[in-house]
Amino acid sequence: MRQFCGIFMTKLKEYERRHPILIIIWSVLITALLVAGVMVGLSFRHNTAKEDEYIVFNNKYIEKELQQILKKDKITQEDLDSLRTIDIEDNQEITEIADLAKCKKLTQLTIKNCKLNDISAIEGLNELQVLDLSGNEIKDITALSKCYSLTELTLTNNQISDISPIYGLEKIQKLVIQQNNIGNIQEGIEKMKSLTFLDLSKNRLVNINQLAKIEQLNFLYASSNMLSETPELEGLTNLILLDLGNNAFSELGYLGNLEQLEELDIYSNHLEDFDVLKSCPNIKRLNISYNEYSGLNGIEQCPDLEFLSMKGTKITDISVLENLHNFNTIYLDNDFDRSQIDFMIGNFKNGDEKTKQYLLDKQYNLND
Questions:
Q1: First and final CA of the chain: distance in angstroms?
Q2: Angle subtended at Cα 41 by Cα 36 and Cα 47, rounded to the nearest 5 degrees
Q3: How far apart are CA 301 and CA 58, in angstroms?
Q4: Where are the beta strands (DSSP E) in the chain?
Q5: CA–CA separation, 101 vs 81, rounded Å?
Q6: What angle do CA 299, 303, 307 make, to 5 degrees?
Q7: How far apart are CA 89 and CA 110, in angstroms?
Q8: What 8-state DSSP symbol labels residue 200?
C-alpha cells in the first residue's frame, strides 16, 4: 500500500508538470463544489429557522385581516413589530382579539362594527395612543386601565355601564362614549387631568354634577339622556360648548359661572324661559328648537349672539334680535313671517333654505 501511494504521488507530480492549467481548473471546480455544498446547507438551516419564526394565529379572521394589511401570506414577529396602525371594520366574525397582543408597537387601533366582546388583549399594548372600538358588544373595559399612553378613546355604541376603570388614564384628551348604558358618573373622573372633550350622548344619565370637577373641560355633549334637573357645573369655567339637547328639562336655571361658553344646545326639551342664559352671557350660538318658548324675552342677556335655531317653538316676534349687532344666522319654521328678518339684509351669513331664499330675493330687489 505504501509502495502504491508512492507511485501515485510520483505520477501526480509528473502530471502537474505536464498539465499545470488542468490542475488549476480541477482545483477551482472542487473548491466551488465544496462552497456550494456549504451554502446549500446554510440555506436549508435558514429556511428551517424561518419556518419556525412564522406566527401561528389562533383566530383565522384576525390572521386574514393582518395578511391584508401587511400584504403577506405568512407573518413573522418582525412584521407585527413593524405595525403602527391597524384598522378593522365590519367583520362580524371577530369576537376577540387575543392575537393582537403580539403587536406591541401599535400606536393606533380601530376595530369598528364587529362583534367584539373581549378586549383583554389590549392590556399589554403600552404604546397605544388612539383607540376606536365603536359598534361592538363590549361591557367590561377593565383591560384599558393600564393603557397609559392613550390620548383619544372612542367606545360609541357598546354595552358599557361603568367607565371608572379608565379614570387613571391621565393623558386622554378626547373621550367619546355615546350610545352605551351609563346611568351615573362615579367619583374620581377628575383624575383625567388632560380631558378636554367628552361625549356622553345617548346614555341613561340622570345626573352629571360629577363632571363639574373636570375643570379643564372645553366640550361637553350630554344630549339624549334622562336629565331633568338643572346640573351644577360651577367648576367648568373653561367650557366652550355644552349640549343638553333632547333631555327632560322643563326648567333650566343657573348652571354656574360659564363665561367662556360660546355654544349652548338645549333643543328638544320642555323649556319656556331663558333663566339658563344668566350662566353664559357671552354665548354666540344658541339652539332652542322644539321647546315651549313663546317669546325671546331674556335673550338680550347675550349681546354677542350670532346664531339662533328656533324651529318648533311658539315664538312669533323676534324684534329683540335687531339689537344684537353680531347676529347673522337664523333657522325658522317654514310658516314663520320672514318679513321680521329684513334687518339681517347685508349681515346675513346662514340659515334654513327658505330664509336664505327670502333674503336673497330681498337683496336682489334692493339692488334693482
A1: 128
A2: 120
A3: 63
A4: 85-89, 108-112, 130-132, 152-154, 174-176, 197-199, 219-221, 241-243, 263-265, 285-287, 307-309, 329-331, 350-351
A5: 11
A6: 70
A7: 8
A8: -
Residues 170-224: tens digit of each pLDDT: 999 999 999 999 999 999 999 999 999 999 999 999 999 999 999 999 999 999 9
Q: Is residue 311 within 8 Å of 333, Cβ to Cβ?
A: yes
Query: Are residues 220 and 243 in contact, defined by beta-carbon separation less than 8 angstroms?
Result: yes
Residue 8 has a pLDDT of 45
Alpha-helix runs per DSSP H in 178-260: none
Closest to 131 (Cα-Cα) out of 159, 148, 111: 111
**CA gap 63, 54 in Å, rounded:** 12
Distance of alpha carbon 333 from alpha carbon 175, whole angstroms: 35
Nearest to 153, CA basis, from 115, 180, 183: 180
CA distance 272 to 282: 21
Split at pLDDT 50, 70, 90, the class of 364 is confident
d(CA 153, CA 141): 11
pTM of the model: 0.85
Fold type of domain 60-171: 3.80.10
Task: Write the pLDDT tens digit of every residue in 75-111.
Answer: 999 999 999 999 999 999 999 999 999 999 999 999 9
Could you give the residue ranges of the DSSP H alpha helices within the chain? 2-18, 20-53, 60-70, 77-82, 353-367
CA distance 288 to 268: 8
